[in-house]
Amino acid sequence: MTKLLILNGPNLNLLGTRQPEVYGSETLAMVEEKCLQHATKLGANVSCFQSNHEGVLIDQIHAAKGAYDGIILNAGAYTHTSISLMDAIFSVELPAVEVHLSNIHAREEFRHRSYISRAVIGQVCGFGSLGYLMAIDALLAHLGAE
Ligand code: DQA
Asked: What predicted TM-score, i.e. pTM, was given to this entire model?
């Protein structure tokens, strides 16, 4: 069975109450449950993990090698700052998809640059929590596992 790791970065534990006009009213637990159900329907397995700490996210990416077939990552604001997270994805050589709930390209200038984008197959942004399900579809298609 194809195994995917869904990683969420800083402040995404506050989904539901954090700027709902930007990020929606679903909690992270609700989004993760949706991912779980969607993946199960497609015959895949997902594990979800969230951290507010860059190093912890990097450790999770390292540990994914050999344990998962691909990674879905919403790195939050680390997207725009973290060369280390980008390097971690390059290092494990696992296919990855970048997700953002909001359309980062339509927001402040500093959100337009994503270091993560250089290391992933593609980016899904602007579709709210649906973006995670789209990322699951895209990753499974890429892996030839749909
Ligand atoms: C985000 C967009 C980032 O710019 C922001 O820092 C986040 C959330 C999104 O999902 O839209 O924390 O990654």
From this structure: 0.97
